[in-house]
Amino acid sequence: MNTRILTCGLLVGVSTLGLAMPALAQSGAASEGISAEVEPASEPAAPSAADIIVTGSRVLRNGSASPTPLTTVTTDALMAAAPSGSISDALNNLPVFSGSRNSFSNPGSNATGVQGGNGAANVLNLRNLGAYRTLVLFDGHRIPPTLYNSTVDVDLIPQELIQRVDVVTGGVSAVYGSDAVSGVVNYVLNRKFNGFQAHAEAGISQRGDAANRDFGGALGFDVGSRGHFEASVQHRENDGILNRATARNWDNLAALQGAGTAANPYTLATNVRLSNYAFGGYITSKGAFSGQQFASDGVIGAFDRGTATGSSCCQIGGDGAYQNSSMISPFQGTQIFGRFDYDLTDDVHVYVQGAANLKKNTSYTGWNQLQGLTFSATNAYLAQDYQDAFAAAGQSTFTMNEIWNGAPRIQAMSKTRQIYLNAGIEGKLGAFDWNGTYTHGTSRLKTTISNLPNAQRLAAALDAVTDPATGQIVCQASLTNPSAYGGCVPLSLFGPTASSDAALDYVLGSVGFLTHTKMDAADASISGPVFDNWAGPVNVALSGEWRRISFDAASTTSPTDYADCTGLRYNCTSTTTLYPTTFPNSDTVSQSVKEAAIEVEFPLLQDVAFAKSLALNGAARYTDYSTSGHYTTWKLGGVWEVNDDLKFRGTLSRDIRAPTLYDLFQPETVVTGSFVDTSTGATVYVPSINNGNTALKSEVGHTYTFGGVYKPHFVPGLTLTVDYYHTVVDDAITTVQGFNAAIQNACYSSNGTSPYCSLIQRDAAGNVTAFYIQPQNIAKVRTWGIDGELDYNTSLAGRSLGLRLLVNYQPHIYYEQLGVATIDQGGAGWGQNGLMPSPSVQLAGFLSYQVTDGVKLDLFEHYRNKFRRSGVATQVFTDPYVKSYATTNLTLTFDTGSAWKIADSSLYFSVSNLFDAKPPLSGYYSGTTSAGQSYEFSDDPTGRAFVIGFKVKG
């Protein structure tokens, strides 16, 4: 541990001395958005400023003139920092990203809600304002959504020919349209790649799991004197970590226990088990054998109750059962990309490009949790002594709970197939640049949940009797209704391994959910100087865009598919759904969008006493949605370059996020359950109806930023950047649950005037008859913070040495909702509606040193500070904080081109989490019963891992 602290200190200490990193493409201007040094295979000369389009603007060609904070990181730097993952995995190490979902996020068996149909998707989240408020671009063009909640699984972006990633951390809806509320992530393609490159790597954790394989290649060549072709393919696999309950010795069935009050505070406990479940079956009914278990097959014995906790559900130790979900979800992915460019004339250029992306995510959400099962006291699998004991007690039935670890775990598999086609024409008309593009994209997402019990078959199989004709154990229903249950196989749950394979095959089934998202889009723009004023050229960009997005969904089992209970004695009612997990069907729904925009760069001063330059940048956009109305967004910014050393910049913007098709048209689903009517205190058994809301309107965000860039002439090459940001999202869309106690109380205290009252349905007598769950424009989100960056470049012992340090401080993210207590998610752990942890301080340090001509060393350090376990101020914890956490990654690259004479090649060896730091256990206040299943860590649980790889270029 001391060694790791020394390393952290070295990184911070060196940063204060001002060292920079050439691998991150940072010259003096690089931190302001210019990718000043890119390393494609053929190593052409660095692009000129005229060749570089600044993400976040359509008129700027020089990143130093951008008023919007922008971070640029090259692919080489990202992969040196996180060599065993994708570009997107590496991006999540940058401090501006917080709350992103990835392969070690808690998987969900229904994969709905925030997961968008794939519980293991990799989605980017700027500032933890929600992935749906982060716009993802591929080479400047909007990517069709891959998940049905409109977000993009960024693992699907072909990364072999990506040369850099630009991250705009400010609202830019006026430039790019809806969804760019918290910013834009733009994957920038190397369009001039010539030659070939290939790589292959393999890795594994120190504990022998999380094995990964990655191989791919790219080629590019000129076609005649005017054409150019490039293509790439990459395949990636990760075996994941399949057992959350047992894979790591520090992950010991942790869960919060208690009620969160001063009298019974939340306490993070380990070795937590469910006190009313057993792996072999726990008898819950009163009478004979009450509170005992089937500790072994067919044998009833005592149940060790362990130590009580502050939650009635659970115990510490003893014989209680627990869950076991996957810790890191396995995946396989293949990316294919091709592009052809052609110069029709010296001034007119056309291109067509296409990508196909195939990805499979697998996750395990635990064993089936069977509750309140009713059995005949004469069940054929019961020993006669037990049957006699039940008879003596006057019992004809008994009930039992079980974590069914004798059956396979529930498996969620999501397969995504994405096709992306983009064609364009661009050129020059005098001093003006113009372009037009057309994009077509389709995304097919198929989610299959396997190993679920079919309720109808389970009810039949559990009612086991002895056939009087044969003396064999059979299903009672097969005797009374042989036409429907002639193939029924009796099932025993009386013991951890009592279930036969044949019975499992009969009872278990799967549920499928298939969604299609399609997008067609066309856009055109023209930009250039319209005239010169006293301070320089006035540049203007005009653009227009049209797009249409459609969505449909089909399910093999819907929420209205109920079991047929005819002839079944137990465990089946008219409201029993056929499977415990269901998905709704949706007819094709669509929305079209028309947009027009203007952007102006207006210089005010040039080479005066107090300003080397002063310029304003403004943009405005009109957007018309066919589903949710029309809106105007705008952005105003300015850059004041005081002198060669000092520069100030600032922006002010109005941005929007339109409701998604799923927000608007989510098909109705109904789940009947027991809820408390807080106005009377009575428990009611009524339907909870979940549906969309066609009355939704767009969220409106307001962001302002102010910052400075300092490049002191007395320390050549040093660049210091600081930016303050403040964002408020009004009319924020949030899902409101009518049965929630706080929502009910807000309605009742308003005397029926609250909009929440529409979510509670009553009859003429005042009795609750239904609750509704619906998205509404009912919330406000507020946050502010500071981004900092330091870059410097120097040499040590005649060798290049460099460092880049990125810092984000975001102390508060307020979620305000009418009639409900405000939640501060800044510096806090998990929250409602899928909110992920948000450390208030994050740092990322990149250190690079050319040890010899043939050996290069890269170090990456990531740190987050401690955070509160909850953003709910009224909750009480015995230990309210999750400890701080830091990891170090080391990569050594050996130049084999000169040593082994293998073209331009290199061999690299990486160790991630060099000091095997153990993520501190955390928890979620609603996850008291989820030990072994979810909410136990917020950081990568892999531990120390190794990667070896080989690259070749030509």
Q: Which tags fit this structure?
A:
954 residues; mainly beta; 22-stranded antiparallel beta barrel; 12 helices; 9% helix; disordered N terminus
Quick summary of this structure?
The protein has 954 residues and is mostly beta strands.
What is the average per-residue confidence, as pLDDT, rounded to a whole number? Answer: 87
Task: Give the % helix.
Answer: under 10%
Task: Evaluate the radius of gyration.
Answer: 30 Å
Number of helical runs?
12
User: Strand content of the residues, in percent?
Assistant: over 45%
Main sheet attributes: strand count, strand direction, barrel closure: 22 strands, antiparallel, barrel
Termini separation: 43 Å
Per DSSP E runs of 2 or more residues, the count of β-strands stands at: 45
Runs with pLDDT <50, length 5+?
1-51, 109-114
General form: globular
> What's the quaternary structure here?
single chain
Structure classification: mainly beta
